[in-house]
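Section 5.1 Outputs to date
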Amino acid sequence: MTKIRLLLITAILLLILPLHVSGHESGEDIENISLNSEAAILIDANSGEVLYDKYGDQSMYPASITKIVTAIIAIEEGNLDDTVTISENARDVAGTRVYLEPGEKVKMEKLVKGLLINSGNDAGVAIAEHIDGSVEDFSDRMNRFVKEKIGVNNTHFENPHGLYDADHVTTAEDMAKITQYAMKNEEFREIAAIEEMKWDGESWDTTLYNHHQLVRQRDDVTGVKNGFVSQSGFTLVTSASQDHIDLIVVTLKADSADFAYQDTEKLLDYGFENFETYTVEATPDSLHLGNSEYILEEDFVFTAEKGIDWNQDFTEDGKLEIENEQGETIETRELTEVVQASTMEEHHTLDEDTETKTHQISVWGIVLGVLGLLLVLMMVNIIKKHRRRRFFY
């Protein structure tokens, strides 16, 4: 009977305890959110704060959300006005295409639109070959870009489109950071938000409709990309904005597109209902705190419970502290210490005095050295004369 009781208790605990999920305790209980996606994350797009995390650091296959990186590189490190000549290699790539033809000449900007809106794998290869000459070299650029410019460390790309490769991996956390970076670019934001566009190609004239359904269905959704290969399941990256907060949701390995969208909307609704982005504006003048002067150089953005009353305080040790209604510190930011002009002038004067004294000492050293050398020569000359006299005597 004891073993049966233990098994029953264990089963009950497994049912009521949450998975590896974290988030702010606010409004709707975070543990009540049930997702089909194997991994997911919700962040504040401005502060970067993680509001929900389900296996966000787990290595996964991204599929076509890879194209977010290809697009932002094309925009920032390519030239959207370039004319790209399509290769046979680009035309022959598998999967979703915009039906480019070998020898066809297409503007880079149009390729980026075909890449993001219609998930054109051929557009991805054409972009890669135009910028770096080959898919392999462009993939190296992608890996450098996300590590050096964005600062993610658990992502590795083998191609610009997201077709399956065992070494082509990312995490929900990394994709959220990548998307946060990309959405700061105005050109990227505009393209990611396009609902439909006319496509006049050499072999394909049609209207492209954004493959991300929520871009066409919800006014607050501003992008960005969906994906699918059998090994990755259904992947989805979404950005959305309301007056009080901008959100980014990443869901990975859902069992169907419907589940990916349902999971995403659950997280968006949770974020919008419970959180708000707040801003402490940069200080135009320095603050005298303790024995030093400090300044808040840039606006400080933080995320907290929606609609809270909060206060800011500057401490004597040079920190900005945000307190809630209960007087609890919920956010802290280090201020920048200001070096006073008078202090700088004093240091400069001291440096000049030291330099002058050093120069004077150096000059006197030379003078004394020369005098010493002359004295030695005179002594040698006297000794020689003295010896000559003794010899003649």
